[in-house]
Amino acid sequence: MPIRLYILDDHAVFRSGLRALLERERDFEIVGDTGSGMDALTALDAQPVDILLLDISIPGLPGPRVAEAALRKFPRLGIVVLTMHEDEYYLQELLRIGVRGYVLKKSSDQELVHAINAVARGESFVDPALSHHVISPYVGRITPKKSERIGRLTQREQEVCQLLAYGHTNTQVAERLFISERTVETHRNNIMGKLELKTRAELVRFAIDNGLFKLS
Q1: Is the domain of 196 the same as that of 107?
Q2: Which residues, at least 6 apart from 184, have a Cβ–Cβ distance to it below 8 Å?
Q3: 97 with 196, same domain?
Q4: Which residues have CB under 8 Å from 177's CB, separation 6+?
Q5: Which of 84, 147, 179, 201 is in the most buried spot, having the most CB atoms within 10 Å?
Q6: Could you tell me the residue range of the domain that residue 205 belongs to?
Q7: pTM for this structure?
């Protein structure tokens, strides 16, 4: 079954180009698009949608409020923010709300497709470029309480946690660390259990708060 996408962006030309781009992916089905937050919420009521592609700066009802309202009604909905904003405030706010994907408009087509597929699988994706430029102010800021939590993880688990938080799949983590996918899955389960995390979004927030995003 294809991944059903709905696009919310107030720039009609960009929306049209994005739609044409994503329609080339055989696993994607575009079920609608709009420039209005209220219209998007109405559309979600009218038809099944797997992924909402969402801009932040929308006239009327802004993107974060659309995300909040949509997830309150459809908690299983995947939301991928596609934006020009590199502000850490927006990233933090949207992660708090429950958004699982955050991609910059300047990123490649492949990054966006990767993000959509990751979120559709129930995972999270934070644009690597955004991680470098936006999350950098958080590197090294560890409160004593958070320091105790990160101390529960082995060095290898911290490495796995970092790569997962960046949006890498189990396969990609295994390739980077020269370990098996089964070992990655074991580390991932241990991380989630030790830290009492339930979602990938919570793992991303933990990585941000504990300085696991490194500058290149």
Answers
A1: no
A2: 160, 170, 173, 174, 177
A3: no
A4: 156, 159, 160, 163, 184
A5: 201
A6: 140-209
A7: 0.64
